[in-house]
Amino acid sequence: MRIITFGTYDLIHIGHINILEKCKNFKGEENTLIVGISSDEFSFFKKQKYPIYSQEQRKKILESLIFVDSVFYEESFEKKRDYILENKADVFIMGDDWEGKFDEFNDICKVVYLPRTPSISTTEIVEVIKQK
Ligand code: CTP
User: Which atom of ligand 1 sits closest to the CA of residue 118?
Assistant: First the structure.
């Protein structure tokens, strides 16, 4: 199956690796995993701050992971439907912090939310480093 997922993937951590692994192996198959990473400008639009790593660095890091087959830049929420269609995705997967948010795409693919890895996020890592 062709799986698509989205995220910023800044300061790669175990929660990121776990969800990418679950996507790659979804339903016990060796799927093709396509990742849409938020461009620097889209990240700024969403969070009013730029990621620590540039979009080029984040893309290269993701491309080097064994679970990931291809990476593209996500530039806006409005284009999400086109990204799913262009990439011929069968399944759209996100962590369950997004539960219910993308159900509108069930008409063009299967939308699945998987459990997040507890107690870790990029935001939390930045906060911990700041306090040291
Ligand atoms: N994710 C996860 N478990 C975590 C953190 C993230 O499964 N502990 C998943 C998210 O649900 C999403 C993907 O990883 O599907 C990319 O999330 P992203 O927003 O880039 O990571 P966060 O660490 O949540 O970043 P931030 O703190 O900036 O929101």
Answer: 8
Q: What is the pLDDT of residues 23-75, one digit of tens each?
A: 999 999 999 999 999 999 999 999 999 999 999 999 999 999 999 999 999 99
Closest CA to 67 of 27, 111, 34, 100: 34
11 Cβ closer than 6 Å to some ligand 1 atom: no
Asked about 60 being catalytic, the answer comes back as no
By C-alpha distance, which of 63, 61, 83, 85 is closest to 10?
Answer: 61
pTM for the structure as a whole = 0.96
Q: Indicate if 132 belongs to the active site.
A: no
Dist. CA 80 → ligand 1 center (Å): 18
In the chain, the largest separation of any two C-alpha atoms, in whole Å, equals 47
